[in-house]
Design the sequence.
């Protein structure tokens, strides 16, 4: 069955895909992962991954989606058959569905934190608050599984509601008005950090000084007896974050590509989305790190970073109640428009292949994801020290709770591997003529050839290199 829906314009696709890309990954995850990995060198590797691996994979996904005209599972099936290959290639779509379930299950819990912060902001909880006080508010929230469940349920309900109706309705308004507002609010926060934190340059240096030692030798401190062991885990995290932040490697963008008019040029569209996405992440970093340093906080303090630092700033500024509330409302919207793209591929597949109604499919999948989310909720309190894979022995999985595992396995393993296979399929399996038709690639078109070179060689080798180096250090046994 073919998808009937279509974006009303190229601009609409850019909005929807940017809505998918810009989300918690930029504002919550980028700053704390960059903080954990030492800053500048990590940011540089992240940006290199966005431009050399991320953009080509995103283009390949859009191309496959538009040619397949269906959900990722069925689009991959159709295109594999068209290329006279085994339909096993639809495994890419399946892996995307699983990644979507896992990601949305914890994504919704974190979006729930943002929801919980809206009433806190509105009621002035953070006015004049100390760094310790802000830390305490965050810890009190995450220590209470029932509270987290309440906000997680609300966010999943909101997501199911929209997907049940079809993504297009309402999305245009949400993204075209709210995203630019979020952008300007972030710019205002950066200006605030520049003018009043007194530590702006320290934040800038942290984000842009490339200290590769901090990336490759995490925690290295011979004076205090910490030995320096080389690790590729930081580079793997940077690559994983690039995939996560661009929403690629799991079919989300492929799904949106299916709704893209045939006449839209893929290259310029993709570059626009990737630049917007990177800009938002960098702005979030520039807003947050000066506040971190001004208040003597630890940049590597983990997932709570944004939820502790920004409220301190809002608590100090004039009109902080309004700006703060607006910020968390917009953050919820950013997360919401990303959540659509996590749920849409599997719902579209159920509608196409099982003739389910959209609302039944959305409610059924949403319910399973909601259930799975409970494991992440408990990872921040009752089960924070429960490591389900501890029995595997000494490797990176052994010390992770459910939330850490879901995050690590999706970002650092499933999305890069999904991207690798998407790249191989687009570059080596699809026929030249099919590729050219979709990419509008006149043989002499320089952007087509640059893309083909990147997707053929740079992307697969880059992913494999980072991956194998990091896996070599997983130390099974
Ligand atoms: N890109 C989203 C973000 O940065 O928050 C998260 C995401 C959405 C990841 C959709 C993967 C995906 F398929």
Sequence:
């Amino acid at each position: 069955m073919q998808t009937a829906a279509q974006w009303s314009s190229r601009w609409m696709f850019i909005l929807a895909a940017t809505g998918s890309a810009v989300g918690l990954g930029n504002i919550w995850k980028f700053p704390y992962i960059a903080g954990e990995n030492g800053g500048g060198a990590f940011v540089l590797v992240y940006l290199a991954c966005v431009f050399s691996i991320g953009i080509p994979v995103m283009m390949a996904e859009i191309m496959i989606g538009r040619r397949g005209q269906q959900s990722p599972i069925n689009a991959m099936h159709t295109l594999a058959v068209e290329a006279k290959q085994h339909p096993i290639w639809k495994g890419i779509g399946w892996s995307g569905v699983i990644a979507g379930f896992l990601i949305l299950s914890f994504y919704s819990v974190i979006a729930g934190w943002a929801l919980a912060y809206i009433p806190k902001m509105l009621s002035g909880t953070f006015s004049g608050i100390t760094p310790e006080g802000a830390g305490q508010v965050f810890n009190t929230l995450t220590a209470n599984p029932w509270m987290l469940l309440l906000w997680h349920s609300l966010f999943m309900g909101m997501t199911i509601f929209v997907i049940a109706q079809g993504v297009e309705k309402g999305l245009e308004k949400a993204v075209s008005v709210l995203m630019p507002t979020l952008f300007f609010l972030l710019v205002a926060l950066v200006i605030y950090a520049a003018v009043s934190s007194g530590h702006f340059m320290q934040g800038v240096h942290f984000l842009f000084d490339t200290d590769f030692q901090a990336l490759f030798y995490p925690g290295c401190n011979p004076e205090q007896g910490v030995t320096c062991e080389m690790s590729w885990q930081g580079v793997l995290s940077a690559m994983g974050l690039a995939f996560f932040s661009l929403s690629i490697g799991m079919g989300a963008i492929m799904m949106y590509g299916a709704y893209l008019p045939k006449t839209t040029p893929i290259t310029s569209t993709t570059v626009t989305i990737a630049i917007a996405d990177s800009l938002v992440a960098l702005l979030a970093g520039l807003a947050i790190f000066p506040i971190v340093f001004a208040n003597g906080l630890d940049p590597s303090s983990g997932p709570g970073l944004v939820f502790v630092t920004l409220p301190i700033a809002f608590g100090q500024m004039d009109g902080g109640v309004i700006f703060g509330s607006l910020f968390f409302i917009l953050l919820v919207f950013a997360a919401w428009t990303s959540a659509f793209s996590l749920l849409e591929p599997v719902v579209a597949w159920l509608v196409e292949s099982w003739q389910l109604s959209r609302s039944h499919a959305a409610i059924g999948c949403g319910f399973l994801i909601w259930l799975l989310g409970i494991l992440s909720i408990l990872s921040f309190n009752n089960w924070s020290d429960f490591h389900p894979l501890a029995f595997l022995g000494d490797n990176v999985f052994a010390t992770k709770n459910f939330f850490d595992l879901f995050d690590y396995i999706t970002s650092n393993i499933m999305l890069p591997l999904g991207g690798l296979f998407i790249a191989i399929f687009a570059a080596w399996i699809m026929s030249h003529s099919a590729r050219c038709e979709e990419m509008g690639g006149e043989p002499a078109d320089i952007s087509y050839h640059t893309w083909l070179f990147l997707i053929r060689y740079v992307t697969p080798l880059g992913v494999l290199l980072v991956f194998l180096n990091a896996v070599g250090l997983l130390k099974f046994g």
Q: What stands out?
A: The chain has a mean pLDDT of 92. The chain has one domain: 10-470. The pocket of 4-fluoro-L-phenylalanine is lined by residues 20-21, 23-26, 103, 244-245, 247, 250, 252, 338, 341-342 (CB under 6 Å).
